[in-house]
Amino acid sequence: MKKIVKTEKAPSAIGPYSQGILSNGVLFTSGQIGIDPTTGQLVQGGIEAQVRKVLENIRALLSTAGCTVDDVVKTTVFLRNMEDFNTVNLIYASVFQKDFPARSCVAVVGLPKDALVEIEIIAIAKGN
């Protein structure tokens, strides 16, 4: 069983993919970049602003699927510049505060819309 997860509180897909998929009680999100869903534009303010917006967008997807950040079991973080690792960790730790999800973090050559960070998650959806 597969259910499309979609919300206007996170950016629309900019390609042929879904914001998220709920399958057998597991939520898989597409990578989120720091796009403001109301403008469709990447937020200004560098890595800090982008990470905050990414995590806000992820929370919107989680909420739509009936989940919270406490339900996240795995994240993958893509960074354009590994020098941003500590900054990302500080902001990330303000959202994921206990029972941290497993995580991978990799440096990439480029991201859509020239974003500085992209994060995707896997969460266990209670009652779905």
- Poorly predicted regions: none
Sum up the overall morphology in one term. Answer: globular
Number of distinct beta strands: 8
Let me know the CATH homologous superfamily: RutC-like
- Spell the H/E element sequence: EEEEEHEHEE
Main pleated sheet: 6 strands, mixed
Number of structural units classed as domains: 1
- Alpha plus pi helix count: 2
Under CATH, the topology can be stated as: 60s Ribosomal Protein L30, Chain: A
Computed over alpha carbons, the radius of gyration is 14 Å
How far apart the termini lie comes to 11 Å
Q: Under the CATH scheme, which architecture would be assigned?
A: 2-Layer Sandwich
CATH class: Alpha Beta
Mean pLDDT: 95
Q: Helices and strands: which structural class? A: alpha+beta
Give the helix level as a range of percent.
Answer: 10-25%
Question: Widest sheet: strand order?
Answer: 1-2-3-8-6-7
